[in-house]
Amino acid sequence: MPFSYLTHLECAREGTRYDASVPQRLCECGSPLLARYDLDAARVEWSKDALADEPHTMWRYHALLPVQSADAVVSLGEGLTPILDLPHYGRAIGVPNLVAKDEGQLPTGSFKARGASAGVSRARELGIDRIAMPTNGNAGAAWSAYAARAGLEMLVVMPKDAPEMTRKECVAAGADLRLVDGLIGDAGAIVARAADRHGYFPVSTLKEPYRLEGKKTMGFEIAEQGGWQLPDVIVYPAGGGVGLIGIAKALRELAALGWISGPMPKMVAVQAAGCAPIVRAFEAGADTAEPWQDAHTVAFGINVASGVGDFLMLEAIRATGGCAVAVSDEEILAELAACARSDGAFFCPEGAATLAAVKQLRANGWLSGDERVLVINTGSPLKYPDAIRADPPLLQIHDDV
Q1: What's the predicted TM-score (pTM) here?
Q2: Which run of H or of E encompasses 89?
Q3: What structural domains and CATH numbers belong to the chain?
Q4: Which helix (H) or strand (E) holds 102?
């Protein structure tokens, strides 16, 4: 069997076919391009049993990843993050079958490592040696690390209010880091100009096809780690929404292979009340989302006022009978602390947004409490030192407690 069954790229909106053997960005209509595979051949030639001989990383699924040669893979050991039971917290909010996939344990401290590994690997394989991206922090940190490992030149532009640790990660990996007094959309405009003037290949969210392919491996792992039985509900913190779109894509591909069957999990997109374009569009019955004005939230990674993949997120939510939920910053920080106290599971603010959403959905009856619900903790809380206050009393050396 081949290392990859990749055949071509396809416009997510119009279905126009594009050559995957050369660098591509968006369709001429402005929509994302999706990687397509020869699933008929893979169904015959590839089996679950073959995974036993594969590495314990996301690259065990290389047959449905876009890199054509094992020699082109750029890896730091990403993948197979644990799925943790949350028994005490789950019972407390009325959802006893609550589990969390903890992406904070990945090499660069967030799920962005998956997209970076796939995107950088494919960029190098296609002969790209200079890449640039706008970021809210974690993606820039991840792509900087993988670019360094691949020997690529990296330009990162991020909002000045992004988590400070992510800045340090970019600098440590040798990226050319620039800050902007604005949001990620403003950073994206700067990257676009840099691409035109200085020859960088831009790797903005969904404006190149391969980050999505790395993110979709969360879906493969959720299926495999569950013994090929899926949860009833998957709850995802949605900014650009690549992970949500990717998980849905992965599960459709596994269904085409015959590796899973039955109903798909209901997909729930969670956004902050201060930046909720997908929630507003979902509630209005719209197919696309209008940009959000004055976007702000403590969950900086989902502070995305407008995304090119809005229609793909809304499609995935509606196709599975899911929903979109907005939660306040106060709820995010409260549930972050509550889960850490209950089960020792320390989430980043974006991940904690999913906990707040589950609590809300149980309270309003959307969840009955009998479902197996999986939430995605997208990153390490250690990058957000201000999310938990710690002001313990200071003892003198002869004091007792």
Answers
A1: 0.95
A2: helix 87-92
A3: 83-110+211-387 (3.40.50.1100)
A4: strand 98-102
